[in-house]
What we know:
The structure holds two protein chains of two kinds. By secondary structure, chain A is mainly alpha-helical. Chain A has 13 helices and no strands. In chain A, helix 5 (105-120) packs across helix 6 and helix 7 packs antiparallel against helix 8 (169-180). Mean pLDDT of chain A is 87; it is low at 250-255 and 257-261. Chain B has a domain at 51-233: MetI-like (MetI-like fold), CATH 1.10.3720.10. At the A-B interface, helix 1, helix 3, helix 4, helix 5 and helix 6 of A face helix 1, helix 3, helix 4, helix 5 and helix 6 of B.
Amino acid sequence: MSFSRKSLGIPYAVFLLIFVAAPLIVLVFYAFTNGQGQFTMHNLSSFFSDPNTLGTLFYSFAIACVTTAVCLLLAYPVAYILAMSTIPAKSVVLMLFVLPMWINFSLRITALKEILNVLEGNLAMHPFLNAVIGMTYDFLPFMILPLFTTISKLDGALREAAMDLGADSLRTFLQITLPLSVPGIISGVSMVFLPAMTNYVVLDMLYNSTYIMGSLIGSYFAAYNWHGGSMISLILLALICLFTLLTGGGEEETARGGALL
Amino acid sequence: MNKKNKTAADAARVLFLVLVLAFLYLPILLLAFYSFTGSTHIGAVRGFSLQNYVTLFTTSELTDMILGTILLALGSAFIATILGTMGAIGAFYSRRGVNAFITSLNQVPVVNADVVTGFSTCILLVVVLHISKDSYIPLVAGHVTLCAPFVFLSVMPRIKQMDPSIYEAALDLGATPFIALRDIVIPQIVPGIISGFALAVTLSLDDYFIATYTKPATFDTISTYVVNATKGAQTSIKTALWALSTVIFVIVVLIVLGMNIRSMRAEKARLENSVRRGGANV
């Protein structure tokens, strides 16, 4: 057989089938079976009938929504100011905001924890607040980057046209800049929302013992309950699909990968 | 807008940026400061000491863990780079259906939560296929699964930008497809391969969840070690981790500075070149 460029894709296709497709199939199988391998809807129905797990779902949503909102409120002005400014070393300043994402997150959260300890005295007193602060601290750079990329690519002529036609700067922002930066917002939100629902280590490290969706998987894993854990994973996957459909999808790689590209 | 208002607005903007930067950096910098003292917690004033750094570099538990993390990151990134690059080239030249199939499967680990990726890898390899975690196969497989899709995504745009006629010309001039690939295609996509590799290394270094679900019980990455250590290890280990955080911070700063200086030099050279050529390329 002669060499062709197409055949280079075969190892990767096989790899994806084994390590991406097969685990998902196994996940579905385990989610709908019990310890004896019999088909059951129990894992699904117990998730949606148990007030504890529903509470976890709700709590995850609350943390994810608040964290995403806080990140957006901090990141948008940063990205906007940077993108609009005429300072010479703009890329260096942007680097300053993005650099923390390359420092191991567990070490960064350790640092944050030491500070919060001094500020609050007892971390256990403000579990929700600490979770939001921790996640914001962890994920903020991932929100700034896509926003900056989008805003700095906007055509300045549109803003000038709006101003020439009599719009004041607030109206120009609300009707021109903000709507045009929606792709960056979507990309940033998708970078923050899902990790905020699942990254339970941030909560653990800041002494917040309330479960979020990720902690459920962690606890099923610790208890060797593969069936329960698979169902939670499947529910998370469904949420991810829903989220991707709602936001149009396909933008994520630019954000998570964009840092180095 | 008058000048005074404008200055005030500028000052407010700068102040906002500084405040956000302070939020991002104060914890790390404060920890760095205290890592050079004998303090056991922030706020306690003790004298200058390098004890944390001595502990960090002489405790075998810590050095093994750091070395293991780096080896895992380099190894998985290496495999992921080869797989992802081959995958991107192969997918690009394949039929549209095959291309779409590979591209969409590639997207799964990218959008998926790391908890789910780790858990599902563990179920397939450890629970169903009974591969021992002590073999490191699940761990490396998990990290390659996390990293390879990002290599694929960073190489693909380079392939799309390539001028296909150069490859055709090489074939017309008698090169075998393999030589044309090695001498024509690969050199053009090298920047994508390099940034894909760098991205893979950082993803692996930062990972906690996939490692937790797939690692041997006796092996720790920096992330898994730190998370366990904060749940109540000895104080000397805890403060040695402050030193580790500082060392990593300095390394990251140096790398980023180096990259920036290099790209600024390249930019300057490009500008000078185009000026010499009459500005045609500016």
